[in-house]
Design brief:
Length: 98
């Protein structure tokens, strides 16, 4: 099972209070995790990635094992600790301002 931690506003929208666990078919990539997440929680479609190009929304970031994966290719295989469920895949609301 893949663990996914969502920011508070997406947890509220998905009606969950904790991180979610998803069954994801290999290969385990950002795209496959997000596809599974949107399949289990259809209310999240369009909130993390746009509907047409499936690109990450500007004010969200993706982290895996303490590293920013926001600009990695969507089909890049995620680290082993994510694939085994030892670490969660983090979707984090970006902080903007100045």
């Amino acid at each position: 099972m893949i663990r996914v931690a969502l920011p508070a506003h997406l947890r509220t929208l998905a009606k969950v209070t904790e991180e979610v666990e998803l069954a994801v078919e290999p290969p385990i990539t950002q795209a496959s995790v997000l596809d599974a997440l949107e399949s289990c929680f259809p209310m999240l479609r369009g909130t993390i990635r746009d509907h047409i190009m499936h690109q990450r929304r500007p004010f969200l970031r993706f982290f895996a094992c303490g590293e920013d994966w926001s600009h990695e290719p969507p089909d890049a295989t995620l680290p082993n600790a994510i694939r085994t469920g030892d670490e969660p895949f983090l979707i984090v609301g970006a902080i903007a301002g100045g």
